[in-house]
Design a protein that fits this description.
Number of strands: 4
Order of helices and strands: HEHHEHEHE
Strand content: 15-25%
Radius of gyration: 16 Å
Distance between the termini: 12 Å
Helix content: 25-40%
Largest sheet: 4 strands, antiparallel
Number of helices: 5
Strand order of the largest sheet: 1-2-4-3
Length: 179
C-alpha cells in the first residue's frame, strides 16, 4: 500500500488528519513518566496498557526501534467544555474505535506493526488489572503515546498537525508503526 493510499484510507475512516513521519524523528523523554505516576487518570497500576505494567520508558522506546514509519491518525472533536470529561471521553473512544478499525484493515493486508492509541486500553469493559488477574487479551493491549513517554506536541508539529486546537475542541492521536 502506498503512502497516499494509506492516508486516503485514514480519511475515509473519518480521521480529521493523517500523516507519516520517520520513527527516528519521534522524541521520547523518560521524565514524562512522572505524569503517569501522578495517576490523574486512575489507571496507573490498574490497566495493563499503562505503567508500570507496560514497561519502563526505556523498554517502551526499545519497542519502537524495529520500525521505520510512524503513521499518525488524528481526530479533532467538538466539546462544550474542557471540564466535560464525558464528552472528551466520547471523542476519545470514537477516535480509538476508528483507529482499531483502520489498524485491523492494515493488518489484514499484511501490514504488521505496533499500535498506540489515545488513553488506556479499553478492549475490556473493566481491565482485569483492576482485579489483579492476568490480561484476557494480551495480544490486544496497545499502550498510549503517554505511556511511551513520547513528546506528542513535537510529533504533531513535525507532522504539520495541530496540537492545541482552540476553545471547544480537543485533539486525539493514535500511531501505527510499520517497517
Amino acid at each position: 500500500m502506498t503512502e497516499q493510499e494509506l492516508l486516503r484510507l485514514a480519511e475515509q475512516e473519518g480521521f480529521t488528519h493523517a500523516a507519516v513521519l520517520p520513527v527516528d524523528q519521534l522524541e521520547f523523554d523518560p521524565e514524562l513518566r512522572k505524569y503517569c505516576e501522578e495517576n490523574l487518570c486512575g489507571n496507573y497500576g490498574k490497566n495493563y496498557s499503562c505503567p508500570p505494567f507496560c514497561g519502563t520508558p526505556e523498554e517502551m522506546r526499545d519497542r519502537t526501534a524495529p520500525y521505520r514509519r510512524a503513521w499518525i491518525f488524528q481526530t479533532i472533536g467538538e466539546v462544550a467544555s474542557w471540564e466535560d470529561s464525558g464528552q472528551i471521553k466520547a471523542v476519545r473512544d470514537a477516535h480509538n474505535q476508528k483507529s482499531r478499525s483502520l489498524i485491523q484493515q492494515l493488518r489484514k493486508q499484511g501490514m504488521d506493526g505496533l499500535a498506540m492509541l489515545a488513553g488506556p486500553c479499553s478492549s475490556c469493559e473493566v481491565c482485569s488489572g483492576f482485579q489483579g488477574q492476568p490480561c484476557r487479551h494480551p495480544e490486544e493491549v496497545p499502550s498510549c503515546i503517554s505511556a511511551y513517554c513520547m513528546k506528542a506536541e513535537k510529533m504533531a508539529a513535525d507532522a504539520g498537525l495541530p496540537y492545541w486546537c482552540g476553545p471547544g475542541k480537543v485533539a486525539f492521536f493514535s500511531l501505527y508503526l510499520t517497517d
